[in-house]
Amino acid sequence: MPASWSPRVWLSVVLGIFLQPFVFLYVNRPGLFWLYLVASLVCAGVDWYFGLALTLLFSLLCPLHAALIARRYDPTQPRRWYCRAWVPVGLYLLLMGLILGTRTYLYEPYSVPSASMYPGLREGDLFIAQKWGFAHRSLFGLRLPGSGHVDTARLRRGQVYVFYPPGHEVLYVKRLMALPGDIIALTPDGVVINGQTLPRTELLSGAGLHVYREDNGPQSYRIQQLDDAPPSAVRTFKVPAGHYFFLGDNRDNSNDSRYFGSVPADQIVGELIWQGSE
Asked: What torsion do the CA atoms of 252, 255, 256, 257 make, to the nearest 10 degrees?
């Protein structure tokens, strides 16, 4: 390898803007690459959790720092294999592919879009959904072709799932209440599934609302009902084969299967496995 090689300043700036930490491979500073990479991942996590924009700083810091190194570069030092411009580009694309693949097929973070799952999930809360085992695919909320295979063992009463309701193009997050073939009735005294009223215990009463702990099989969670909600008649639904019935925990303020119907299994995207408000 020629000993007189030096990184180009203009290329360092371009790579720094678009590749950020990977530019430090091009300018022969692998230590800085790892330092900036770890810092950018930490900032990305902080941004996601707190709604900040710290990662934008790396679009400024990386090209400036890389350009300074390129201007002061000692051409007598050996040029490593990773200093060729195509190497950091290829490694960056590989990392982005892994991230997109993970979000598409394994795990993806979401935020709660409304207060329909209060008090368990508040509007704006962050959570992670596990997506493998489900037929439907999405990425950043956009529909992708699905696999057609559904692991129905993963669909359990009382769990929270992300799905596309019938006739809707946006993702919803609700609690699965009834399985295919179940008969579910919504009464003033609570939810009745196949003739059995779900046990519930009042936890809080006041300020115009009631909070209960409801048990649905092995799952226990909190629901909310409002004192000023208009009274409604008893409503009974039969869940069709291959479909699932969802409710919001904020029972008097939720657009759910009472209105859009049961959800086909192949429209369910993933299962909540972690929430930021826990």
From this structure: 100
233 close to 101: Cβ distance less than 8 angstroms: no
Query: Helix H segments across 51-191?
Result: 58-71, 86-105
- Count the alpha carbons within 13 Å of 100 in the hemisphere toward its beta carbon: 8
Q: Which amino acid is located at 113 in the chain?
A: P
Q: What is the rounded CA–CA span in Å between residue 87 and residue 218?
A: 51
- CA 257 → CA 155, 167, 262, 268, distances in Å? 16, 12, 5, 13
**Exposure class string for 203-218: b at 16+ Cβ within 10 A, else e:** eeeeeebbbbebebee
> What ranges make up the beta strands (E) of 105-264?
107-111, 126-130, 137-139, 142-144, 160-163, 172-178, 183-187, 190-193, 196-197, 200-206, 209-216, 219-226, 235-238, 243-247, 263-264
- The helix/strand/coil state of 211 is strand
* pLDDT tens-digit series, residues 29-82: 999 999 999 999 999 888 888 878 889 999 999 999 999 999 999 999 999 999
Provide the CA 221 distance to its chain's centre, in angstroms.
21
Nearest-angstrom CA–CA distance, 52 and 40: 13
Indicate which residues carry an active-site annotation: 116, 174
The position carrying tokens 């693949």 is: 101
pTM here is 0.86
| Residue 105 burial (C-beta neighbours within 10 Å; 0-12, 13-18, 19+) | middle
Residues forming a β-bridge with 178 = 245
Beta bridge partners of 250: 224
pLDDT digits (tens, 9 = 90+) for 114-167: 999 999 999 989 999 999 888 777 788 777 777 667 889 999 999 999 999 998
